[in-house]
Structures are given as structure tokens and as C-alpha cells.
Amino acid sequence: MTKIIAYLGPKGTYSEVATLYYAQYLQEKKGIKSELVPIVSISQTLHTLAKGEVDIAVVPVENSIEGTVAITLDTLWELQDLHIQQGLTIPIIHNLLSRGRSLEGIKTVYSHPQALAQCQKWLEKNLPQAQLIPTNSTTEALHHLNQEPTAGAISSLRAAQLYDLPIKVANINDYADNCTRFWVISKELHDHGNHVSLAFAFGANLPGVLVKPLQIFADKEINLTKIESRPTKRSLGEYLFFVDLQGDTSKKPIQSAIQELSSLTKVLKIFGNYDILCVDRQQLNSVLGDRYSNPI
Fold first, then answer.
1. Is 259 helix (H, G, I), strand (E, B) or coil?
2. Strands (E), 141-258
3. Max mean pLDDT range (135-144, 204-213, 234-243, 255-264)
4. Which letter, b or e, does each residue of 154-190 get, where b requires 16 or more Cβ atoms within 10 Å of its Cβ?
5. In which band, very low, low, confident or very high, does the pLDDT at 236 lie, cut at 50, 70 and 90?
6. What is the pTM of this model?
7. Average pLDDT score, the chain
8. Does the pLDDT at position 174 exceed 60?
């Protein structure tokens, strides 16, 4: 059996790294082989899955420095019948790549908006004169380097090696413990694990409307690990809410809480009940052949 897995490409992105690790996990744990397919954007990665063109999508959902990847939540809310199978948390190690002769000569820096934000303090200190230009992915940024001698890009060691580009400065994260959580998503139902992700919207924005759902979880001693609002995109001031909690949907407290929550909300979506794998640098290097992290 072979599963086709979509991820934010091109090759060399952190999404590809997470996908490569998950592909090995599938092979070792379940004997399932994988075919990896790079997609141009996070949104299109999920739409490709929804249309049935691939079996699995691996998408970033949250970074320890910059928080939620909003397009992932927004697209998952928009689409139907997609379910989280697994969470993956991997370390993120950013590097400045450039063919320029000196750091001072770099006038523009390209990268994904998340990567630019995760290196914001370093950029302000070391390249205050540089213009920061967002791209769809950290790897997409690299094609500028062969055309612009005064350009730099923030990307991974793996990408530098894949595209034969010099690393001007290694390990430029603002915070050493930078990591990103990814979701592995498919159309298959997944109803067991230690984490539950869901979202809900109300029929009207009334005083105290959010208190009752939160009280349900408090009364049942269910630990919420995250709550975040996102605009409904219908009207200014209207929001829907994404919640992560600890628990298993096969257990009565979670089942009861979800049942009560459904009676209070206009729309309730359960995205998945899943476990999270926390992957370290050594594990990634074992998958990539010592091509993920730089010596520190």
C-alpha cells in the first residue's frame, strides 16, 4: 500500500521535513509506503486533499514564537470531512542563505512570513537596512539568490544543501527553542488520542455567550490547552472559536462535554482526536542523513 502525501513545497521546506519524518513513521509502524507531493500553498495543500487528489496532507498549525498559522485554521473550517490523524512537533532552525560577498551588502531578504517574523530581532540587529519580502514558502525564496547578488533568504540547512546555496549565517532564530506543530490530516475518521481539536460558532454575538461553553469544560475538569478566535468573514465583530483540549473522545467526560456544547452553538466541528509526536534534532538528522541541524 502507498499513501500520497501533500505538503507545502518545494523540496526543502520545514513542511517537507515533517512529512519525511511522518513517511518514515508510517513505514516503520504500519508498513505503509509514501509518495510525497509538493503543493504551492498551505490552502491548496488542504484543498488538494479535500478533492481526493491525495490521501494525506501535512500542514503547519502553530509556531512557538509566532503562534497560529491562521490559513490552516481558516481553510480547515471552510472544508468538510477532513480529520486530524496525528500531531507532529519539530524544531525549527533558520539560516541566512546568500551568494553575496558580505552581510552588509544584502539589501533584500526573502522568506515565508512566519520565518521572517521568527527572525525579526536578528534581522533588525544585523540587517536593519534590508527590505523583507514574503514568499509562499522558505524554499520558494531561494530562486531569487541566483538572480540577485544582494539578496538573502531564510531557509533550512537541508534546503541549502539541496539547492547548493551557501549559508551566510547559521542558526538565526530569535529564540533557540523555536518549534512548529504540524497536523497530519486525511479523510479518515480518527477517534482516539490524548488531544482533541474542535471549533464552534454561535448564532448571535450576545453578552456572555462564550462563558457557557467554557464552563462546560471547567465543570468536567477538562483541560483546555488553547483557545483562539478567528473572524467569521461575514461581518466585522463576528468570530468563531478554535479550541484544543486534553482528552479522548471515547471517554464519557469528553462525549458529554461535546454533546452539551453542540446544544449551545450554531456550528460545531470536531477536527480530530489524536496524539502528538515531539521530534528532536537527532531524530530528524537520522531521517535526513545529518542534513537538518547545524552544529551550535
1. helix
2. 151-155, 167-169, 179-186, 195-201, 224-231, 239-246
3. 255-264
4. bbbbbbbebbebebbbbbbbbeeebbbbbbbbbeeeb
5. confident
6. 0.90
7. 92
8. yes
C-alpha cell of residue 42: 498551505
Is residue 2 classed as helix, strand or coil in its secondary structure?
strand
- Return the C-alpha cell found at 222: 477538562
Look at residue 295 and tell me whether its pLDDT is greater than 50: no
276 closest CA partner among 125, 48, 85, 141: 85
Label each residue of 56-92 as H, E or C.
EEEEEEEECCCEECHHHHHHHHHCCCCEEEEEEEEEC
C-alpha cell recorded at residue 128: 536593519
Beta carbons within 8 Å of 44's beta carbon, 6+ residues apart: none
Torsion angle (degrees, nearest 10) of CA 165, 43, 239, 183: -70
Work out the widest C-alpha separation in the chain, in whole angstroms: 63
